[in-house]
Amino acid sequence: MSPDPTREVVDHIVDFFDRFAPIYDDWAGGQHGRVAARLVDLAAPAKDEHVLDVGTGTGLVAHLVAPRVKPGVVLGIDLSAHMLTIARRHTDKNLQFVGMAAEHLVFRPETFDLVTMGEALTYFADPTAALAEAHRVLRPGGRLAVSCQRRSLNTRAQELFFQGLTPLARRHYLSLPRYSSERAQFGEPHVLPKILAGAGFEVGGLTEMVTGGRASDAREWTELMAGAGPRPYTLIRALGPRYRDELEAEVEAAMASLGDPDEAFRYHHSYVLVVARKR
Questions:
Q1: How far is the CA of 114 from the CAs of 99, 139, 194, 223, in angstroms?
Q2: Domains defined along the chain, listed by start
Q3: What is the pTM of this model?
Q4: DSSP letter string, 76-106
Q5: In the chain, what are the helix, strand and coil shares in percent, each to the nearest 5?
Q6: How many CB atoms lie within 10 A of CB 32?
Q7: CA-based nearest residue to 10, from 138, 229, 179, 240
Q8: For 51-84, how does the pLDDT look when each residue is reduced to its tens digit (9 = 90+)?
Q9: How far apart are CA 237 and CA 101, in angstroms?
Q10: In angstroms, rounded to a whole number, what is the distance separating the alpha carbons of residues 6 and 61?
């Protein structure tokens, strides 16, 4: 029997988050925390509400929601055991974390007032099933709050780097499982609302958030880009010292080819955030 390609991708993603968990909160100057805070503000959790945080990771969203809904309950779920271990280090009495897949929720219908998915939708094995489950467990009029990275706003430096990942993998005979390229469109302002509408939600508010900065050199750049996702992380971490030096020399040359010193090593991380109600 041939292996399930989706299962291979999920395993790869979970392995990435398990390995990256200790530095996830601090990556890119605490970027994930800023996105989580913005999502929570848009979702506007209220006292006594019951909330499910799907793809909770280290609990960035869940930890912010818990004090707002107290004595309401917050439950964070994820497949990465190491992310959940970090999430559990600091918990409120009304907050719990459980290992669970987004596509197979064990809760009864109409259990929650709010479901959040912070930077998680593109990583699910089946986003359609995950949204259907979120719809099922939400009460009538309940809210879904989602954030997704908008990859079309990458800088020229980022585009050059990510374009070079495929030839890098070929040179080192690395074949990494990955989802179809259409998921890169999930974070576009004209795409995410349509996805949510198709899942039975009425989109209320949409906002965009852009963070970014500039690395000082090729070593700092590759360290930063390693945290951008499972594929760059695995490729960069697989390189020994000699090949890592070669990669950094290639990065330096690519940045020089931009012709503008201000563009070199500059990155943007852009997000679309949407709040929708269950129809």
A1: 19, 8, 20, 36
A2: 5-154+180-214+266-278 (3.40.50.150)
A3: 0.94
A4: EEES-HHHHHHHTTS--TTEEEEE--TTS--
A5: 50, 20, 30
A6: 23
A7: 179
A8: 999 999 999 999 999 999 999 999 999 999 999 9
A9: 27
A10: 27
